[in-house]
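Section 3.1: Structural characterization of target chains.
Under the original work plan, the team committed to producing a structural model for every single-chain target entering the pipeline before any wet-lab resources were allocated. The record below documents one such target. The sequence was received from the expression subgroup and is listed exactly as submitted; it comprises 90 residues.
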Amino acid sequence: DFSARKLVVRDQFRLGAGTRAIFQLNVPVKPRVDGSEVTAGRLKLRVLEPVNAVIDIHDWRAQDSEEFRKGFRIDVSGSDTSYVVELSEQ
Protein backbone atom coordinates (compact mmCIF):
# COMPACT_ATOMS: atom_id res chain seq x y z
CA ASP A 1 0.00 0.00 0.00
CA PHE A 2 1.33 3.44 -0.94
CA SER A 3 -0.20 6.49 0.72
CA ALA A 4 1.02 9.78 2.19
CA ARG A 5 4.59 9.10 0.94
CA LYS A 6 4.74 5.80 2.85
CA LEU A 7 4.94 2.32 1.38
CA VAL A 8 3.56 -0.50 3.52
CA VAL A 9 4.68 -3.98 2.50
CA ARG A 10 2.65 -6.94 3.73
CA ASP A 11 4.36 -10.28 3.22
CA GLN A 12 2.32 -13.35 4.23
CA PHE A 13 3.69 -16.86 3.90
CA ARG A 14 3.51 -20.45 5.04
CA LEU A 15 6.78 -22.10 5.98
CA GLY A 16 7.80 -25.64 5.13
CA ALA A 17 9.49 -27.88 7.66
CA GLY A 18 13.00 -26.75 8.56
CA THR A 19 12.73 -23.33 6.91
CA ARG A 20 12.52 -19.74 8.10
CA ALA A 21 11.55 -16.49 6.44
CA ILE A 22 13.60 -13.29 6.40
CA PHE A 23 12.39 -9.96 5.00
CA GLN A 24 15.37 -8.34 3.26
CA LEU A 25 16.10 -4.87 1.94
CA ASN A 26 19.35 -3.76 0.29
CA VAL A 27 20.56 -0.19 0.84
CA PRO A 28 23.68 1.69 -0.37
CA VAL A 29 24.61 3.33 2.96
CA LYS A 30 25.24 1.91 6.44
CA PRO A 31 21.95 1.59 8.33
CA ARG A 32 21.37 2.49 11.98
CA VAL A 33 19.03 0.35 14.06
CA ASP A 34 16.92 1.86 16.84
CA GLY A 35 14.48 -0.69 18.25
CA SER A 36 12.07 -1.65 15.47
CA GLU A 37 13.25 1.17 13.17
CA VAL A 38 16.15 1.34 10.75
CA THR A 39 17.47 4.49 9.08
CA ALA A 40 19.68 4.34 5.99
CA GLY A 41 20.35 7.80 4.60
CA ARG A 42 16.91 9.36 4.08
CA LEU A 43 15.14 5.99 4.07
CA LYS A 44 13.33 4.89 7.20
CA LEU A 45 12.19 1.29 7.63
CA ARG A 46 9.78 0.56 10.47
CA VAL A 47 8.80 -3.01 11.34
CA LEU A 48 5.10 -3.05 12.27
CA GLU A 49 4.78 -6.84 12.56
CA PRO A 50 5.97 -8.95 14.26
CA VAL A 51 6.42 -6.89 17.40
CA ASN A 52 9.32 -9.13 18.47
CA ALA A 53 11.21 -8.82 15.17
CA VAL A 54 14.98 -9.28 15.11
CA ILE A 55 16.87 -6.84 12.87
CA ASP A 56 20.37 -7.64 11.61
CA ILE A 57 22.63 -5.69 9.27
CA HIS A 58 24.78 -7.49 6.70
CA ASP A 59 27.77 -5.62 5.23
CA TRP A 60 28.25 -6.85 1.67
CA ARG A 61 31.94 -5.84 1.69
CA ALA A 62 32.55 -8.38 4.47
CA GLN A 63 31.08 -11.05 2.19
CA ASP A 64 33.41 -10.38 -0.74
CA SER A 65 35.24 -7.05 -0.94
CA GLU A 66 36.38 -7.78 -4.51
CA GLU A 67 32.81 -8.09 -5.78
CA PHE A 68 31.00 -5.73 -3.38
CA ARG A 69 32.56 -2.30 -2.89
CA LYS A 70 29.61 -0.96 -0.89
CA GLY A 71 26.13 -1.82 0.24
CA PHE A 72 24.29 -3.33 3.15
CA ARG A 73 21.37 -5.70 3.58
CA ILE A 74 18.77 -5.22 6.31
CA ASP A 75 17.43 -8.58 7.52
CA VAL A 76 14.17 -8.72 9.49
CA SER A 77 13.38 -12.07 11.09
CA GLY A 78 11.25 -13.50 13.86
CA SER A 79 7.97 -14.47 12.22
CA ASP A 80 6.63 -17.73 10.88
CA THR A 81 3.50 -16.27 9.23
CA SER A 82 3.99 -12.66 8.00
CA TYR A 83 5.89 -9.38 8.02
CA VAL A 84 4.49 -5.88 7.80
CA VAL A 85 7.09 -3.20 7.09
CA GLU A 86 6.66 0.51 6.46
CA LEU A 87 9.11 2.42 4.27
CA SER A 88 9.20 6.21 4.32
CA GLU A 89 11.48 9.17 3.69
CA GLN A 90 13.19 10.94 6.57
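DSSP finds one helix and nine strands in the chain.
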